[in-house]
Amino acid sequence: MLKTILVWLSLVTPLFALNQYKIETYRVIDGDTLNALIYLDFDIYVNNSIRLFNLEAPERNTAAGKSVLKYVELWAGKQTVLWTINLGRDKYAGRFVGKVYGDTEELNKLLIDNELVKIYDINKPKPKWSAEELEHVRLLALELTEKLRKEEK
Question: 123: which of 16, 51, 56, 76 lies 20 to 30 Å off by Cα?
Answer without folding.
Answer: 76
